[in-house]
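Please go through the sequence and fold tokens given here and tell me how the chain folds. Record follows.
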Amino acid sequence: MQKTTMESSRSEAEMIKQKIFGYMRVSTKEQNEDRQKLALLEVGVPEKQIYMDKQSGKDFDRTQYQRMLNKLDCDSVLYVKSIDRLGRNYTDLNEQWRIITKEKRADVVVIDMPLLDTRREKNLLGTFISDIVLALLSYVAENERVNIKQRQAEGIAVAKAKGVQFGRPPVPVPDNFEDIYRKWRSGQMTMREAGAACEMNPKTFYSKAVKYEQSVLTINSKI
């Protein structure tokens, strides 16, 4: 009993000595903030030590992540719920892992993947296993990101082929556009005046004028 109490006291002392941090990331479309936060709190991360960014995981140019990174040192332990919450880019993720564990000499614990716990097996084998698991998981995370983008691009291409319009609807051309266009081309009106007469800004008027000229040239070439 006495030994158990001593071990418990030693464990508590080690926890006090360590600086515990948590990191969570949600994109603007995701609603899993509470789930990540609960997981971090359950493993003992103080709420005030949890850093969160609301943006994609394509890179590490994130305000809260960089702020947390600056605080890590050899007495720190960083918790994340899953590896993709840290990042999705294979190359960048591995580089950040190296910075945290090698340069900062901090420990990392991935809650959903017990093998990714650098506190375990503080030897060459333990490091080797963690590095292999990280490489595999980060590759899978990036591959999934690439696949999602490819599926989105394919979906957009199919939708466009079916006539679906994306973006803002085109600005309609008024009935007197040709007359205003000729006055602008002949110098009787400035581009600003021509745009105002067509109820559109000068850039839009110019874009419409270029398209009009291209259509006229196409028609003439077929005559």
